[in-house]
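Inverse folding, one chain.
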């Protein structure tokens, strides 16, 4: 997997996914290399010492055939473009809320997911919380 946007919520998500036995964070993509330097070792520690690579442009991760999915935790104006491009690149997507800024962006995301047969999930943390599952 690749995490796109490593500050704040992105670093929390990266550690969570990296701690799973069925996930590996291969790329930390962020325009600010300092975010990589701040979080890379912590991610590596969560996944048995496997150090993620840095990509200042997340399209590097999209070009990597070994990447199955991306996590979009960027500033919100990038959620729609990153999701569409990831679908076009054959990647599944977990995207943080808000999904998009307007209905047109959302429609483009849905079209891309359907056209390229991708799974796209929007983060709604509380939806899966035990107290909401009753």
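Residues assigned per position:
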């Amino acid at each position: 997997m690749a995490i796109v946007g490593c500050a704040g919520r992105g670093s929390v998500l990266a550690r969570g996914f990296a701690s799973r036995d069925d996930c590996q964070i291969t790329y930390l993509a962020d325009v600010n290399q300092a975010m990589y330097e701040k979080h890379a070792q912590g991610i590596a520690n969560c996944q048995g010492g496997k150090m993620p690579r840095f990509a200042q442009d997340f399209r590097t991760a999209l070009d990597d055939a070994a990447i199955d999915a991306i996590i979009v935790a960027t500033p919100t104006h990038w959620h729609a473009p990153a999701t569409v491009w990831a679908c076009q690149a054959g990647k599944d997507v977990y995207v943080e809320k808000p999904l998009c800024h307007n209905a047109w962006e959302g429609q483009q995301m849905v079209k891309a997911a359907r056209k390229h047969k991708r799974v796209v999930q929007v983060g709604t943390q509380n939806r899966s919380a035990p107290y909401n599952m009753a």
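Residues 6 and 35 are 6 Å apart (CA to CA). The first helix runs from residue 9 to 18.
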